[in-house]
Amino acid sequence: MCGRYETPEDKRILAERFSTRATLQDFQLGRINECSPGSVQPVVLLNDEGEREIVAMRWGFTLPDRSLFLARSEGAATSPFWKEMIIERRCIVPATAFFEWQNTKSGPKPKYKLGLSGRDLFGMAGIWASWKNPKTLELEPTFAILTGEANGAMRQIHDRQPAVLDPGDYEEWLAQDDRPPLHLLRILPDEHLTITRLDPVEAIRAEPLKQDEPPPAQRGFLFG
DNA sequence: CCAGACGTTGTT
DNA sequence: GTCTGG
DNA sequence: CCAGACGTTGTT
DNA sequence: GTCTGG
Question: Tens digit of pLDDT for each residue in A172-221?
């Protein structure tokens, strides 16, 4: 669940919309695209000076046999693995939508795009840490997205969903505190979700781009 | 079945 | 089936 | 998360 | 998320 999400094509608007000083001019984070685990994405946090900043982070903590890119909000505060992160390193993951695949008994899994009514851009609750990139063996800032129980129409598709923050809660979520503000991780009201079932063509179009692959808008042009 | 771990570096 | 790449 | 590959020798 | 141990 929430194994993929979407970011704005123009990353520069993130600085404005999340009230950060950074202009993101240094980001080379691709075009309109799905974000997949393992990719590097813009994340909002408080820097050492207490200012909001946008940082490029890798999505998912790679372990020897798997990658942890989601963390259950219910258990994160007591989990040995997540505890330190949720207390000391909370962040916001900007998104315009997230994707889910319906768990069907057999056959293809229908793909859905989920957005928030009246909010073209929103922030998912995240946590981060410095983590070794298994390929480069370098330490990199790395994040995971907190999840909660799904409800209502969402439950028809999947039983979990990403924790979406209220814009008025961004400050409290990022602020350093003795105890993590878990009360901000409310279940996303069902009526606020826009759920679109993607037809196979749309689903493929939304797939993550391969390196050096032209953006979707040019595919049709190149191939007539 | 559930609970708990889940990797490394390097040090508040 | 499992692993890797996106 | 899904989609796609999934090996080796050795050079037309 | 997924695996292991109890």
Answer: 999 988 778 988 987 776 668 899 998 877 787 777 877 655 554 443 33
Number of H helices, E strands in chain A: 7, 15
- Biggest CA–CA distance in chain A, Å, is 59
Determine whether the distance from the CB of A21 to the nearest atom of strand B is below 7 Å: no
pLDDT digits (tens, 9 = 90+) for A19-71: 887 655 555 555 557 899 988 899 999 988 888 999 889 999 988 777 889 99
Taking the stretch 60-119 of protein chain A, residues with Cβ within 7 Å of any atom in nucleic acid chain D are 67, 69, 101, 109
pTM for the whole structure = 0.86
- Of A134, A11, A9, A148, nearest to A76 by C-alpha is A148
Contact A61, A44 (CB under 8 A): no
Nearest nt to the CA of A3 via C1' is D1
Nucleotide nearest to A108 (CA to C1'): D2
